[in-house]
Amino acid sequence: MSLATAIATGDLTQLPSRRDEDWRWTDLRGLIRAIPPASGLLEPTPGGPFAGLGGEEIVFGNGRSDGRAGALFTAEGGAPLRLRFCSDARGARHASTMVINAPGGERLTLLESYEGQGDYLADVELHIEIEAGAHVTRVVLVEEPAESILVSTAHVRLQPGASFHQVVLTSGGRRQRIETRVTQAQGGAEVRMDGVYILRDQRHADLTTVVTHGGRDGTTSQLTKGVVRDQARGVFQGRIVVEKGADGTEARMGHHALILSDKAEVDAKPELLIFADDVQCAHGNTIGALDEAAIFYARQRGMPEDVARAMLTEAFVGEVVDRIEHEGARDVARAWVSAQLGASE
Amino acid sequence: MTMLSITNLHATVGDKQILNGLTLDVPAGEVHAIMGPNGAGKSTLSYVLTGRSGYEVTGGSATLNGEDLLALAPDERAAKGVFLSFQYPLEIPGVPALTFIRTALNAQRKARGEAEITAPEFLKKARATAAALKIDFEMLKRALNVGFSGGEKKRMEIFQMAMLEPRFLILDETDSGLDIDALKIVSNGVNALRSPERGMLVITHYQRLLDYIKPDRVHVLSAGRIVASGGPELALELEAEGYDKYVQVAA
Ligand SMILES: Nc1ncnc2c1ncn2[C@@H]1O[C@H](COP(=O)(O)OP(=O)(O)OP(=O)(O)O)[C@@H](O)[C@H]1O
Ligand SMILES: [Mg+2]
């Protein structure tokens, strides 16, 4: 059951609905009345938010890259890969898949962007294989129009000694799910998965992650922060599974959200499912408003209220941005955060 | 000339009457101390003067250089030069102290129609001020007050004050939490700002601070009013005899 299957078969009953536990805050069945026709051809010009960071570009226009809906990339030589999913369609749908391999010892920086216009249904499926000793950084910047429906799912598999660092930054869409499913089947790998969602108007974003530790001594560290205002709705679902025998696993998960208006909403479900004995796992989850005492303090020093609020909000999200190791990507992320928070006042 | 003029000020906090007809004048160039028992309304006065929400003025007036303070937003009062050294300074996660202060300084300058301070100018001033207050410059790169000790927070209040160069200073128990050396350093920092154009209101429980920051006048605040005023000798008398006789006056 998935959006991809529903698109491929035209069968609406394949759409996840709120009756599915993992989709209860991101109902597609109730929203999509018919599978729209296929989107037309789109050939985007080179560019995108990471254009200044060099490397190779692979671009999908309305789901197709060089005429195909799928692509294969094997990392080589350490240059970044800029992976762009561009959409420009009205009342149409498209889907794409991509496989990325990081062979042993390779370091790959994957700069992934979602750039869209119009209203459409889009599905993206990624498979990322990370061999022993390889390191993949994935920075995902999702800038979708208010009327788009997007489901992006990444399946990441790590061998022992591999590492994967990810951050997802999104401003949401009409309905949007960015899901990452990570498996360290034999343990021994290092995973970091962060997220930022900044939502306004009636936008929705769902950041869902599942990490499975199948073997010993793996680590997972997650930090997600969200800011919602107006009637926006943020969803965070984080599940960490530590299977029997996966001793020595260390897992930490934090999700913290700021709700800046009465009508905004955040739904969060952090889950640790632990079947091993000797593990260190912790999670924290907070949802609240800005600290009014801190705002008064800043105003007493001379900052107008909007400046004080923007400063504190940016600092709140900044903790995640600071964790991005790639300097160029960090600068792009910081500028994006400022733009998202600044334009509101 | 009177700089701060408070007349018959009444204020409530959460429907509780805290200030009950408080009258006080601080002329330019003078330092006035306020002493008084716990819960008398000293911090309430400082918040009413700086415009904290939840503190409602129900009567009376407060003017700075003849201008109605109470009609202004907190940041407008700051731009006019009102500075409060908080009894309990707030923590600002994720915002380095230097960034916070530069943002505040430039906001004040903008409100006054002045040019922004340049980055090199600001850093130069920050280094000199940190050195004078014996503050490790590295500490100014950390998130403001987060994880700072009580004394470090107080010292950071004075650092902010020295950087912002306010015209009217309210120090709410800035001495509490300071060790003996820090008390001297902080007092020197405050005294450096004494000038014929500045006024100061120094709230304290301890006469010792007033050995370093010598007040022109000392007032006793009890049950929301000024119940006695005198010269520096009044602080010595309070130290020796306590507030008993003033609490009765107020009752
Ligand atoms: N939010 C509030 N709701 C109700 N009462 C309050 C509130 N805030 C303060 N008060 C009360 O107002 C009174 C005055 O408090 P204030 O903090 O001004 O005293 P203070 O003179 O500064 O005391 P201290 O010397 O202990 O600092 C106290 O009785 C206090 O309990
Ligand atoms: Mg007090």
Describe the fold and architecture:
The complex is a heterodimer of chains A (345) and B (251). With 345 residues, chain A is mainly beta. Chain A is built from four helices and 15 strands. Chain A has one domain (36-292). Chain B is an alpha/beta fold and 251 residues long. In chain B, the strands form two sheets. A six-stranded mixed beta sheet of chain B has the order 6-7-8-3-9-10, sandwiched between helices. Chain B has a four-stranded antiparallel beta sheet with strand order 2-1-4-5. The two termini of chain B are 33 Å apart. The interface between A and B is medium-sized, with 23 and 31 residues. Magnesium ion binds at residues 42-43, 87, 172 of chain B.
* Major sheet: arrangement of strands of chain B: 6-7-8-3-9-10
Listed once per kind, the bound small molecules are: adenosine-5'-triphosphate, magnesium ion
End-to-end CA span of chain B: 33 Å
Q: What's the tally of helices of chain A? A: 4
Specify the overall morphology of chain A: globular
Task: Please name the CATH topology of the domain at 2-90 and 166-250 in chain B.
Answer: Rossmann fold
How does the major sheet of chain B shape up?
6 strands, mixed
The sequence of SSEs of chain A as H and E is: HEEEEEEEEEEEEEEEHHH
Q: What does the radius of gyration of chain B come to? A: 18 Å
Question: Sheet with the most strands of chain A?
Answer: 15 strands, parallel
Residues in β-strands, percent of chain B = 25-35%
- Radius of gyration of chain A in whole Å, from Cα? 20 Å
| Mean pLDDT, all residues of chain A | 96
Number of domains of chain A: 1
Instruction: State the assembly state of the protein chains.
Output: heterodimer
